[in-house]
Amino acid sequence: MSAGMLYGGDEIGALVFDGGHYSLRVGYAQEDTPKAEIPAVVGIGEDANGMAVLEGEAMEVDEKKPDPSSINQSNKKYYIDTTSLCVPRQGVEVASYMKECMIDDWDVFEKVLDYSYKKIIQSESEFHPVLMSEAPWNVRLKREKLTELMFEKYSVPAFFLVKNAVLAAFANGRSTGLVVDSGATHTTAVPVLDGYVLGQAIVKSPLGGDYISMQCTKYLEENDVDLSPSYMVSGKEAVKEREKPRWTKRRNLPEVTRSWHNYMVRKVVQDYQATALQVLETPFDDKIVANIPTVHYEFPTGYNQDFGAERFRIPEALFDPSMVRGNTMLGVSHIVTTSVGMCDVDVRPSLYGSVVITGGNSLHQVQNNTILMT
């Protein structure tokens, strides 16, 4: 929808906001990649001056355009984006504005949009039409509230909400296909037919990047790996493989909150996850894994180790959940077959013949044929 003007072509600076539970991607529609990827969590602390402040490279609210949402939050200070968020500060809590891939905390989300326009786009919002992605199960009430926000607060000339599964299909040159989206909180199979999502056939599983991170944390803690984040480390000594790390703790650290510390520990685990983990192109087999070279990884404390079979076994739970004791959730292959099975029989060949893999959790070198081979 638009405010009465017609837009088309590459001459307009249309913006794209692609949000997820892990991050928000912001950029121009004409470009191949986003200009920035902002974490979907924000640091929230108390401001001693009694002013509502956004901080991302020392950013403050524009006094010429006061934010109405700050009336009841005049003592809050917001730390947005990685550079500002990862600095240890006393009393700063980390909170996400997303829940089930839908916007849940609108006040925090507005602060992120303010930061995006002022620090990333560096332009007034009324000059740029906006395309924003949404989860296929987003509810009408949230769509209406988001549309109202974009027109009334940001005065955008045009605004369009589109299902992220449809965007993923179009990005791969397909109007019909099965979009398998493996993100932070869940993995979904979403059938798309002629540019429309078949909502009744969407299948979700809570197996996602956060689940893999949880399994990584469990494995590392069982093996007594020190997961102290880099903000705690003042210095470290070189040690041999699997030798206990020798490091000194940074002095005069502020009293950080548990939520912020846990966020920094999670970043350590996610870095290990992105560096070491890999999925086989065939179902997990100890004999095959034994012949694959190990990967060396060093943690912020200096502890280092070569990782072999475990770096394949952990993500294999996405495809074979029974590898984790007590896990009865659907694996990726069952999600796919269940979703396609809920569609009309005439559509199924087109869906199976056009599977699109997307989502941050799919970056673990997952091959498309792995899905149908498990």
Automatic annotation (TrEMBL):
Q: What organism does the UniProt record list as the source?
A: Cloeon dipterum
Please name the InterPro entries in this protein's record.
Actin, ATPase_NBD
Xref: PANTHER family: ACTIN
- What is the protein's name according to its record? Actin-like protein 6A
Q: Which Pfam families match?
A: Actin
Could you tell me which CDD domains the record lists for this protein?
Answer: ASKHA_NBD_Arp4_ACTL6-like
| Gene3D superfamilies assigned to the protein according to its UniProt record, in alphabetical order | 3.30.420.40, Actin, Chain A, domain 2, Actin, Chain A, domain 4
Which family, according to the similarity comment?
Belongs to the actin family.
